[in-house]
Design brief:
Strand order of the largest sheet: 2-1-5-4-3
Largest sheet: 5 strands, antiparallel
Helix content: 40-55%
Radius of gyration: 39 Å
Number of strands: 22
């Protein structure tokens, strides 16, 4: 065996070509006698170790390093001709035939043959120098093209793909040697809509947008084609440029969705405001009737049923207010786990579907409007339930999530709580996925088309995002992200049914006479002396006159919005100039208005959202006057 190895070494040494082996760092691990003679190195030099990069021109050195990386990644080299130097400093041009050495499937080095292609005589050397420079420039340009974000391809007049850069392969897949109409458009022949066919026919640039299949759904691709001409101006092929616009298209759809919601919000906000005013009067009169009535059990039960109906109507206005332009959730730190658990149980009453929960013990509190997020969960759970008519389970998972700068979810950098709600139902057809959040879009015979629009709007108003994945016949997963809170979640509080009575003077301003009537009677029943006005200017005059006469009001309740008149924000600003300690309470049917979210910033000490109960009104007055 040893003699055969010696014979093999002698055979390699007798070859008229330079044979070599090297590792990935460029160290020669073997070189035959001809290689030593070609480059002027002795056997002792080779035994001491020679770095292949020492014998290469700088341009060749860069290209060899690049080609090593390309070989490791399974790509073809950018040319095999290099300029080298002998030990005495003279130049030569070589062609390298090399193959990777693999161990356990990994490239660990290269072995091959080096052929001296230096021409004899001065003109030949100049020609080789020129060829070398062309190859260096070609490799440099190919490197630049490969680094581009846009996909570049070249086809011949027969529509065969001759070249693709890295980006083009990533976008549409590797198709060199295939016909472009088969590779890109899945057609048996060229069609009239093909941009490359139009280029060959008209000599002009043409562009189209297409959806192409990818590993994760469809990609939206913008394609353009332009002619490739020879020196005589004849079209010899075409250059194709492909740009992945999937993310751009998604952002455009997000913008369109937001504009749809804004348009709906202009109408919905006004309707909900008027509806809440009416509900305030209805609920107030029911409460007054229940306080003063001496009816029997049957009549009292009817009043309770009427109040429950008002609560259902209030939930409807809350959905409308979700779309109200400029609205903001009234947020605080809350436990997402508690909110979801309560909402899911409520939504699945009487259903064959059950929930499976998975929440980490260290799940962050979220900065949310608890009522609105309960509405989100309720809508998503109901959808999942309806998608599984034969029963099943809904998987609900929570996790902490940190959004990096420039993330694909369009979230601001920071901490979020991520919630996933998955069913194993009928799924959503691909053609409907882009429409499910549109207002009034529904596939249900009795659906309103507002459920998922409400969900989208609430999450969006919270500064979060919601995404959906679905496969027909296998199920759907909704994932939404809500900003985490740096505060601890407040313990759950139950509705206080206590009615707080009191004494003192209260001024009420509202543009609706029916509201003034019911609030005036409520406050009178609670023990207060009441003055009512329908205009902000009149409220200012009345309050300031009472202040001057030494009989000031103990509190003032101001409607936030007075169409065509002076609203609560301007009134409280005037009153604070004369009386910095004014005990002002803001009241509004726009229950998502930012003034209600941050009433203290605008000079108010308290807030009541229409429609309110006599208990809620009495408690807020009690707290505001106690603070005063």
């Amino acid at each position: 065996m040893k003699n055969r190895q010696i014979d093999f070494r002698e055979l390699i040494d007798s070859l008229p070509q330079s044979v070599f082996e090297m590792d990935l760092e460029g160290n020669l691990t073997f070189a035959n006698r001809h290689a030593g003679e070609t480059f002027g190195f002795t056997g002792e030099d080779i035994e001491k170790g020679i770095d292949i990069f020492r014998v290469l021109d700088s341009g060749s050195r860069d290209r060899v390093e690049e080609n090593i990386l390309r070989a490791v990644n399974g790509l073809k080299p950018n040319g095999n001709e290099y300029k080298a130097r002998r030990k005495d400093g003279s130049s030569l041009f070589v062609h390298v035939y090399a193959a990777p050495i693999r161990r356990d499937g990994n490239v660990v080095g290269f072995r091959g043959i080096i052929a001296d292609i230096t021409a004899k005589g001065g003109s030949g050397t100049e020609l080789q120098e020129a060829i070398y420079r062309v190859n260096v420039e070609k490799a440099r340009l190919e490197g630049i093209i490969d680094a581009m974000g846009d996909g570049i391809s070249i086809v011949d007049r027969d529509f065969k793909v001759l070249y693709q850069n890295n980006a083009h392969r990533d976008i549409v897949g590797p198709h060199v040697g295939e016909y472009c109409y088969e590779a890109y458009h899945k057609l048996p022949a060229v069609c009239d809509d093909c941009p490359m066919e139009k280029v060959f026919r008209t000599s002009k640039v043409h562009r189209i947008e297409r959806s192409v299949a990818a590993d994760r759904g469809l990609k939206h691709v913008q394609m353009s084609a332009s002619p490739l001409k020879d020196a005589a101006g004849n079209i010899v092929g075409g250059i194709g440029v492909a740009r992945d616009i999937t993310e751009k298209r998604r952002m455009e759809e997000e913008l369109i969705q937001s504009r749809k919601l804004e348009s709906l919000g202009v109408l919905a906000g006004g309707i909900a405001h008027d509806f809440n005013n009416l509900l305030t009067a209805i609920r107030g009169n029911i409460a007054l009737s229940m306080m003063a009535s001496a009816q029997g059990k049957k009549e009292g039960q009817r009043l309770l049923e009427a109040e429950k109906a008002c609560l259902l109507a209030q939930n409807l206005t809350q959905q409308l207010l979700t779309f109200s332009k400029g609205g903001a959730p009234v947020r605080s730190a809350a436990s997402i786990r508690d909110l979801i658990d309560e909402s899911a149980v409520f939504a699945l009453r009487g259903s064959d579907v059950r929930c499976e929960f998975s929440f980490p013990a260290d799940l962050w509190p979220a900065d949310v409007d608890a009522g609105q997020i309960s509405q989100v969960v309720n809508n998503l759970i109901l959808n999942a339930d309806q998608a599984m008519p034969d029963g099943g389970s809904i998987r609900i998972e929570g996790e902490n999530f940190t959004a990096a700068p420039g993330n694909s979810l369009l979230l601001k950098e920071g901490k979020y709580v991520k919630v996933s709600i998955s069913d194993h139902g009928i799924g959503i057809p691909p053609e409907n996925l882009d429409k499910i959040f549109d207002p009034y879009f529904t596939t249900k015979p009795k659906g309103s088309g507002l459920g998922l629009t409400t969900v989208y709007s609430i999450i969006n108003r919270h500064g979060g995002n919601i995404v959906v994945e679905s496969e027909p016949g296998k199920g759907t997963t909704f994932r939404f992200y809500l900003p985490a809170s740096g505060k601890q979640a407040a313990p759950e509080s139950r509705t206080d049914e206590t009615v707080f009575r009191g004494v003192g003077k209260i001024l009420v301003m509202d543009d609706e006479q029916i509201i003034l009537d019911v609030i005036g009677e409520m406050l009178t029943k609670l023990g207060y002396r009441v003055s009512v006005v329908r205009d902000g200017d009149e409220a200012s005059r009345l309050y300031l006159r009472a202040l001057e006469t030494g009989e000031p009001y103990d509190a003032v309740i101001l409607d936030l919005t007075v169409p065509g008149g002076t609203g609560g924000v301007e009134v409280v600003r005037r009153l604070r100039e004369a009386d910095p300690g004014v005990a002002a309470i803001v009241s509004s049917g726009y229950s998502n208005d930012p003034v209600l979210s941050n009433h203290a910033h605008y000079g108010f000490r308290g807030r009541v959202r229409k429609p309110f109960t006599i208990q809620e009104l009495s408690r807020e007055i009690h707290l505001v006057m106690r603070r005063g």
